[in-house]
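Training component of the fellowship. As part of building independent skills, the fellow (R.M.) carried out the full modelling exercise for a liganded target. The chosen ligand was adenosine-5'-triphosphate. The inputs are recorded below so that the supervisory panel can assess the work.
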Amino acid sequence: MKTIGVLTSGGDAPGMNAAIRAVVRAGIYNNLKVIGIERGYDGLINGKIKEMDLSSVADIIHRGGTILKTARCEEFKTEEGRKKALNVLNVFGIDGLVVIGGDGSFMGAQKLSQSGIQTIGIPGTIDNDLGYTDYTIGFDTAINTVLESISKLRDTSTSHGRANVIEVMGRHCGDIALYTGLAGGAESIIVPEVDFETGDVCEKLIRGKTRGKLHSIIMLAEGIGNAFELGKEIEGKTGIETKVTVLGHIQRGGNPTAFDRVFASKMGARAVELLLDGKSGRALGIHNNKIIDIDIHEALSKKKRFDEDMYRLAKILSI
Ligand code: ATP
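Fellow's submitted model of the complex:
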């Protein structure tokens, strides 16, 4: 193997830059030529590539976003689109590729691997929605960003005796709401994995108010109804003034935490090792604090397990 490529695809996540840096530097350390592909599979199809050197990844380990930019690319889902991509890979002599992204990006990586390109996936997505790995790159940063917002909202809510509905990302996976709900001392956590009744949320708020509580936090994963309607309903049923905050893309930005940087650096370097070992179609992850690699097909078929114990604990502690 002489030349490898690296790209970021799907939603951006803090820590992707640390992973790119590790792939580039570990590649160069091992005498490989490393090519950066811009804008994910779209850039691959359209030949948006540049050779990376040591200084091209200087001063990025602490930055959110991705210096290679990212994109979603419908064309790559087609046979024809992937043929164009394979052609670009051949023309530039790229025989190994590291794909940093979520499950959709991994599906693309799997297809490239089946077409004979050695491909390794690194999980970069803030949602933590991949079943085979305990954490994905960006999740830790995202939950810390949410926690910071919770603390700020708490300050102002306490002053007014208000309740807060805070909507966070995680349309199909409630991990952001769950972790931040527990760490932020939320009264209620509403996630897609567990049915909820507005009546229960209201009852808890009233119990808290009777006990003299000055504020309440309700964490809501996006996509479960409308946060503003929920806020109105809670206010109507409890008589407690309820403010709604939708954190949105703020959760995607910011300097990656130490955890995300370390984890991304280890995975980037491991991806290069796997390519040098002739491996392909592998997905990197973290399990019990160790970096693992498993077959990408198996990784994609593992259903994400919701941590019911953590959910129960959050409920007990917010009694
Ligand atoms: P996030 O979790 O942040 O949404 P993701 O990687 O899951 O990240 P997607 O938009 O699902 O984001 O996928 C990113 C890209 O991967 C798509 O735009 C497409 O180019 C490619 N892709 C997705 N699914 C497939 C597929 N079945 N076959 C080939 N390529 C795919």
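The panel noted the following from the submitted structure. Residues 9-11, 41, 72-73, 76-77, 101-105, 107-108, 111, 125, 127 surround adenosine-5'-triphosphate (CB under 6 Å). The mean pLDDT is 96.
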